[in-house]
């Protein structure tokens, strides 16, 4: 008798679904397609020479080299956690290294927090739209999603309050240059979010993946930093996720969770049980590269991405027909497009890939309630300035045609 896989695979794992959009977008990697679909950094901006140096320095040093190839503690290298604690302190978030766990990217942080805090039916509040990867991590625990509407300043507080009043006690939020919309919260809204969470004793999971990619305007304090103003960091409301993926290189797979000590202690046990620790050598390399490169490399990234964003925004203004609107992000990698209501962006993608040779991600996938049929995420991170302008012009022509049909 053959194995009955349907019965063998547990319900948590079955909750994960393959994405039809991902399959569709596989073709977007062909060179003839101008792709605004990727969610990845521009590889041309990876600091290759510095990596060459720091790997050489490390493996050329007998003691440090051998140590970096050994197992290490589950919390993460103390030196790296200290670097992160110092960096957080510079933003106003005072944390000890015992408040930090190094994870295999922020994505593992999301998975671990899902396993720590979610269970079937437990409610979690999400922005509409929200980061798809977070929803994938959360879905494994089969929670119940409560989507809340966003305006230009952040989440609509009445909706957040209502979600907590009905019993939700966890919210996953991205206050800076959100994936997928590129939008950020105003200072007042950050304060209101914290006040609302405190009113109900709720936890905020703050995703700070893009916070360093700020291109203009004043940098606003994170929810974590604002939470600190109210005393003991171990009693805080906010758990923050960070990563080097957007600032050094995603292949390092170095992220972190900052949380009250009792939470970190529990997560460390999970990390031990799961994969022992993040690669020692990668942690060592990330520490050496960040110490050497920051803040000047951040300025290089900010300059390069700002220029690409500007090209995309001016092309949108030049070519898009009336009835199409878009976000004007002050950082990050994404512009969010809202199309006329009669245009389904999934259908548009098929024609865009075939006729216009342009790819983007239809927005519906980012909504926990499957709304947003006429929305799309455009990344300006990886294409050249010329191709960004060309791609937006082609897409605009197609939208014009569709809108007139
Ligand atoms: C908002 C957000 N959070 C987390 C991640 C995961 O990043 P990583 O696991 O590479 O650190 C991403 C990746 O694109 C992201 O966009």
Task: Identify the notable features of this structure and list them briefly.
seven-stranded mixed β-sheet, Aspartate Aminotransferase, domain 2, globular, 405 residues, Aspartate Aminotransferase, domain 1, 2 domains, binds pyridoxal-5'-phosphate, 15 strands, alpha/beta, 16 helices, four-stranded antiparallel β-sheet
Beta fraction: 5-15%
- The strand order across the widest sheet is 2-10-9-8-7-3-4
The bound ligands are: pyridoxal-5'-phosphate
Class by SSE composition: alpha/beta
CA radius of gyration:
22 Å
Question: What fold name goes in the CATH topology slot of the largest domain?
Answer: Aspartate Aminotransferase, domain 2
Instruction: State the helix count.
Output: 16
Query: What is the total number of structural domains?
Result: 2
Characterize the overall form: globular
Number of strand segments: 15
Detail the poorly predicted runs.
none
CATH superfamily of the largest domain: Type I PLP-dependent aspartate aminotransferase-like (Major domain)
């Amino acid at each position: 008798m053959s194995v009955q896989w349907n019965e063998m695979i547990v319900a948590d794992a079955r909750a994960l679904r393959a994405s039809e959009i991902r399959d569709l977008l596989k073709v977007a990697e062909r060179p003839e397609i101008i792709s605004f679909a990727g969610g990845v950094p521009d590889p041309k901006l990876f600091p290759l020479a510095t990596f060459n140096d720091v790997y050489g320095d490390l493996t050329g040093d007998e003691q440090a080299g051998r140590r970096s190839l050994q197992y290490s503690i589950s919390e993460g290298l103390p030196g790296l956690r200290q670097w992160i604690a110092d960096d957080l302190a510079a933003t106003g978030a005072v944390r000890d290294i015992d408040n930090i766990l190094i994870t295999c990217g922020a994505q593992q942080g999301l998975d671990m927090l899902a396993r720590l805090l979610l269970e079937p039916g437990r409610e979690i509040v999400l922005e509409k739209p929200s980061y798809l990867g977070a929803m994938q991590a959360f879905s494994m625990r089969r929670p119940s999603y409560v989507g809340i509407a966003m305006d230009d300043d952040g989440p609509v507080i009445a909706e957040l309050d209502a979600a907590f009043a009905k019993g939700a006690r966890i919210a996953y939020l991205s206050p800076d240059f959100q994936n997928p919309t590129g939008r950020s919260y105003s200072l007042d809204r950050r304060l209101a979010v914290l006040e609302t969470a405190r009113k109900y004793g709720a936890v905020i999971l703050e995703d700070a993946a893009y916070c360093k990619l700020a291109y203009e305007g004043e940098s606003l304090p994170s929810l974590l930093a604002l939470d600190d103003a109210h005393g003991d960091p171990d009693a805080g409301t906010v758990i923050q996720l960070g990563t080097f993926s957007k600032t050094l290189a995603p292949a390092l797979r170095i992220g972190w969770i900052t949380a009250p000590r009792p939470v970190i202690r529990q997560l460390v046990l999970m990390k031990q049980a799961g994969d022992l620790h993040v690669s020692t050598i990668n942690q060592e390399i990330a520490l050496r590269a960040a110490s050497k490169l920051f803040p000047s490399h951040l300025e290089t990234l900010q300059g390069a991405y700002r220029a690409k964003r500007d090209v995309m925004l001016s092309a949108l203004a030049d070519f898009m027909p009336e009835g199409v609107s878009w976000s004007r992000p002050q950082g990050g990698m994404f512009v969010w497009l809202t199309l006329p209501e009669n245009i389904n962006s999934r259908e548009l993608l098929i024609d865009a890939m075939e006729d216009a040779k342009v790819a983007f991600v239809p927005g519906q996938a980012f909504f926990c309630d499957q709304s947003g049929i006429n929305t799309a995420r455009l990344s300006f991170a990886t294409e050249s300035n010329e191709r960004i302008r060309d791609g937006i012009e082609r897409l605009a022509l197609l939208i014009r045609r569709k809108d007139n049909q």
